[in-house]
């Protein structure tokens, strides 16, 4: 039948919002302030959301002609490693979200749009939205503090702990082979001196 659309199952999870109270009255609005557990696999190589983390959501749900507009902020704890000294880093991530969830009958002509969000039984699943917003906002190379000195390239010690006078004697690589040879060669004095007892035996 023209204009028909497949029936979507009601999503479940801590990041699913029920929008039925809004009805389909454009302009009606509801504020949602809640906390929800986040998925365990959110993050990048150097920064991530710790397992079991709880996010704080402060959102506004607004009914529009096409669907329900969800906007607001999401705050979540973060952990990671300093990109300079590898020390543990803890932070708080705050991201803004603004996403339109279409009514199923309004999304019929958007079947080819993979990025379009669609309500399922008047429920909005925020997990993909939260995932995209948090991961894209994570720093690629976090630091424990802006002036972190990093690690010593010779011994791996944290430069902030060993102090500014920490250093290592470096031998020019071009002289290393010569030094090895010199350690195994006889000295100039030994080369020009013979054993007196050995000379008497020869006579």
UniProtKB/TrEMBL annotation:
It comes from the Bacteria. Transmembrane segments: none annotated. Residues 1-11 have a biased composition (Basic residues). Residues 1-20, 184-203 are annotated as: Disordered. Residues 192-203 have a biased composition (Basic and acidic residues). This is DUF177 domain-containing protein.
